[in-house]
Each structure stands twice: as C-alpha cells, then as structure tokens.
Amino acid sequence: MVIITGASGGIGSFLMNEFIKNSVEVRGLYNGTEPSLNKELMYKADITETKEISEFIEKIGVDLKNVILINCAGSNYNAFAHKADPVRWASLIQVNLIGTFNMINALLPTMRDQNYGRIINIASVVAQKGVAGTSAYAASKSGLWGMTKAIAAENASKGITINNLNLGYFHIGMIDDIPEPLQEQIKSTIPTRDFGNPKDILNSINYLIETDYITGTSIDVNGGLV
C-alpha cells in the first residue's frame, strides 16, 4: 500500500492520481487543503499530532501490507531571519520535519514486522542553494538528510529503504506562488532552461520503490541546478 501525506496538494494530488490510474492501492492524508478528487481514499489528519496519525493507522490497519510511505506534506514561510516570527518559524519545522518523523515512526513497526518498507521524503534544492528568506524551509528540508541517514542505518537489515528527493522547480505545487518575472529569472539559472515535468518526480519515486540497494541518500531531481 502506498501512503501519501500532503495528498491534496499539487505534488501529492498528482501522485495519488497516477498511482490510482496504475491500479496501485493508495491512501492519502491531508490537513489544511480539502481534497477535490479521490475523497474516498483520503483521510484528514494533522501529522504534527501523533494521536491523529494513530487513528488513521487503526482505520486502515488490516490493509497495511508492503507499505510505501511518500512524505509530501509541508508548509512554507518566507522571511529574512532578522525579521522572522519565531513562532511561525518553529511551526514550519513542526510540520515539515517533525511531522515527517511522526509518520515514519508510526509506520516503521509494521514495516519491520513485514521485513519490507519504502520511505521517500520530498526535500528541496532550496536547502542546497542558500535562498534568501527561506531559513525555516531550508532548515526543515536539510534536516531530513541527517534523519534519513540514521533511520537507514537502523533499518537496512529489515528490507526497509529510506531516501530523499531533492526537488528543483517543477510545473506544479509552490511554483504558482512565485511571480512570473521571478519564474523566468529562475528558469535562466537551470541548465535545462525550464521547470521540471511532474512525471519525473513519479519516475524517481518508482525507481526508489523498485530498488533494494539505495538507502540513506538524497537524489537531486533539479534539471542540473548546482
């Protein structure tokens, strides 16, 4: 079973639709954004609340076999560090990093019992480049890298892999929040001179699902950005 957090967002919704089209058993979690599609396969849960995650797992417990967890849930907050609101800064970390850990923590026992699991976290090129105003978002995504390495070491012998996809800029998701002139400026810095096709995200995920010997790492999917 594939479980997708942030399944009502741009990337999460795209992945839900693609898995459904390919007859893959999938369930989605959402919180802030009400889903417009696949409502019968969606569950409302705040991933910063471990009780809500436990309730979700109890609802689908008998179906939890060969679990593939794709962590797409995330929030954004832009502010220069000296002007940032510490509460909003910490809230973003709570969702993007701690919420991701909460999902992993809740599903690892099942994965370990079954000697199989795939965990794929959506990270970002923003954490690699040093983009002004993104200290909270960058911290949350780079935090995934160290967490992933540790969890990989703990679970590699149990048939479980965990990896990150460091996504660049795609024709989906948060890119719509960026003004058009800035979008064109960003494109000029990408060697491919365009934003990515969402299908490249899906292809990368499928590759990690099918591959046993890649774990504890991050793969850049960014059109050649350095």
Description:
The protein is of the alpha/beta class. The chain has one domain (2-221): 3-Layer(aba) Sandwich (Rossmann fold), CATH 3.40.50. Helix content is 43%, strand content 16%. The protein is built from 7 helices and 7 strands, in the order E-H-E-E-H-E-H-E-H-H-E-H-H-E. It has helices at 10-21, 50-60, 86-114, 126-129, 135-155, 180-187, 198-210, and strands at 2-5, 26-30, 42-44, 68-71, 117-124, 160-167, 217-221. Strands 3-2-1-4-5-6-7 form a 7-stranded parallel sheet, sandwiched between helices. Helix 3 (86-114) links the parallel strand 4 and strand 5. Helix 2 packs parallel to helix 3. The longest helix is centred in the middle third of the chain and has 29 residues, at 86-114. It is globular. The protein starts with a strand and ends in a 5-residue tail after the last strand.
Outline of this structure?
The protein is an alpha/beta fold and 226 residues long.
CATH architecture: 3-Layer(aba) Sandwich
Average pLDDT over all residues: 95
CATH hierarchy class name? Alpha Beta
Number of strands: 7
SSE succession: EHEEHEHEHHEHHE
Radius of gyration: 17 Å
Structural class determined from secondary elements: alpha/beta
Number of structural units classed as domains: 1
Q: Name the quaternary structure.
A: single chain
List the total number of helices.
Answer: 7
Which terms would index this structure?
single chain, 226 residues, alpha/beta, Rossmann fold, 7-stranded parallel beta sheet, 16% strand
